[in-house]
Amino acid sequence: MEILNGKWKMSIIACLCYKPMRYSELLKEVKGISGKMLSRELKDLEINELINRHVLNTAPVAVEYQITDYGKSLKQLTNTIADWGFIHRQRIISRMKLKT
Length: 100
Prior knowledge:
Elements: H1 9-18, E1 21-22, H2 23-29, H3 35-47, E2 51-56, E3 62-67, H4 69-72, H5 75-99
Antiparallel strand pairs: 1-3, 2-3
């Protein structure tokens, strides 16, 4: 659990499960994360072999992040958590409507 600890790692992994993304794309996609925090989380995920950092041969130089095969093993977990979150939100909304 320590590897996935924190507010942002699961969101980053979920984004990268669908397609490789550049740093700026991730910064836009993961709502509320700061650039400094995104950099820190990406480094940690790379150290734990969940994502790869690939420097593109472009001018200017760009970096793309992608999920590793090992990291893809988390896709089912992220989907399950997302499904639970949707059901939970609907439950809370329904209860709030009953109270009003």
